[in-house]
């Protein structure tokens, strides 16, 4: 097959995959979640097989344990979180007003800020009020949509039935599926493609498993510490930070803003408790940046945080929650292929300035 036909084939395959995601995105969530779950649990199944279990028994043990743990978490946490989400949405205007009043009091009597910004103090306070109001409305709509989507997300049909079933069959047939896909590879390039897939698997598996552990650790840390200092909705905010911590910097930043805003509205002028909240986030950033991320994630995925952030936002915007699930594997695959292409380019006569055996002056 000529190079042009090969390029046309792979471009057509990419377009077909994108169209498939666009058309079936509303129903793909339990299936994609099941495949990712099987991918994450496959090493455990391999380990159980090494201990003498058959593939079927290993799969049954893993899925039964997962379903039991997941059901217990839903039964314990969902009612509490549902109550806190409703309370948080209802109290957001009060917290926003308190935060606006706090900032306004700090600005009063300080003419330097208005001089630097070229605005009168009255205009500055008015602009601040508009920003706080719009931010409050946006956050309220965001939490409302998350809660509405979360109710669908935790439905029995989508997560407690379809996802475990998909994961069960994927785990059970994993080795056969890998062999089947390998048999489809073009024989002349099979070794190169296997090497690329192994590199993708190493990066994706290491990143996802590590990031899941990081997210769980941060959720436990922030939920526990914020609740201990008495912050309203500390459990909700802490778990929310853990859930979105896979987006670099965004989870911590949003969590810090929400926590400090709630703390100011709840505790001020008793600034000691506000300082405790700030200290919790300072230590949390140290814990994430210097302990959890290096130990659990490291450089497995080989992607720059900015590129990873762009991929998460782009896939999330295009395909919704399903896009967030496939963003990391897709970006890792693109990164591996890009590095492979650059390596081939640097080894080519075009890069080295050699054409027909002669050096180009």
From TrEMBL:
Xref: PROSITE patterns: PROKAR_LIPOPROTEIN (PS51257)
Listed GO biological process terms: transmembrane transport
Residues annotated as transmembrane: 7-40, 60-82, 152-172, 274-292, 301-318
The UniProt record lists the keyword NADP: no
GO terms for cellular component: plasma membrane
Membrane topology: Multi-pass membrane protein
Subcellular location: Cell membrane
Key words, A-Z: Cell membrane, Membrane, Transmembrane, Transmembrane helix, Transport
Coarse class of the protein's main subcellular location: membrane
Pfam family, any one: AI-2E_transport
PANTHER family reported in the protein's UniProt record: PERMEASE PERM-RELATED, TRANSMEMBRANE PROTEIN
Homology family: Belongs to the autoinducer-2 exporter (AI-2E) (TC 2.A.86) family.
Name of the protein: AI-2E family transporter
Organism: Segnochrobactrum spirostomi
Lineage of the organism: Bacteria, Pseudomonadati, Pseudomonadota, Alphaproteobacteria, Hyphomicrobiales
């Amino acid at each position: 097959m000529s190079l042009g036909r090969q390029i046309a084939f792979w471009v057509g395959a990419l377009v077909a995959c994108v169209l498939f995601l666009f058309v079936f995105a509303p129903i793909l969530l339990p299936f994609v979640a099941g495949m990712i779950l099987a991918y994450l649990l496959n090493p455990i199944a391999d380990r159980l097989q090494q201990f003498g279990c058959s593939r079927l028994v290993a799969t049954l043990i893993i899925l039964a344990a997962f379903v039991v743990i997941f059901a217990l978490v839903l039964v314990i946490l969902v009612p509490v979180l549902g109550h806190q989400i409703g309370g948080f949405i209802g109290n957001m205007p009060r917290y926003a007003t308190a935060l606006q009043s706090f900032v306004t009091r700090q600005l009063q009597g300080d003419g330097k800020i208005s001089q630097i910004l070229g605005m009168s103090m009255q205009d500055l306070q008015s602009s601040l009020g508009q920003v706080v109001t719009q931010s409050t409305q946006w956050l309220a709509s965001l939490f409302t949509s998350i809660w509405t989507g979360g109710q669908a997300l935790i439905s029995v049909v989508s997560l407690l039935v379809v996802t475990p079933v998909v994961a069960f069959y994927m785990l059970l047939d994993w080795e056969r599926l890998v062999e089947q896909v390998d048999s489809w590879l073009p024989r002349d390039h099979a070794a190169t493609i296997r090497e690329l897939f192994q590199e993708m698997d190493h990066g994706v598996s290491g990143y996802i498993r590590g990031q899941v552990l990081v997210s769980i650790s941060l959720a436990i840390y922030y939920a526990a510490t914020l609740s201990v200092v008495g912050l309203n909705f500390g459990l909700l905010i802490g778990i929310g930070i853990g859930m979105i911590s896979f987006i670099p910097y965004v989870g911590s930043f949003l969590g810090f803003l929400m926590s400090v805003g709630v703390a100011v509205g709840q505790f001020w002028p008793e600034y000691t408790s506000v300082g405790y909240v700030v200290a919790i986030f300072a230590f949390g950033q140290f814990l994430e940046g210097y302990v959890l991320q290096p130990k659990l994630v490291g450089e497995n995925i080989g992607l720059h945080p900015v590129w990873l952030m762009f991929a998460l936002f782009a896939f999330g915007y295009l395909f919704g929650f399903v896009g967030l699930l496939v963003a990391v594997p897709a970006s890792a695959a693109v990164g591996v292929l890009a590095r492979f292409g650059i390596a081939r380019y640097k080894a080519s006569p075009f890069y080295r300035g050699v054409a027909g055996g002669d050096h180009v002056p």
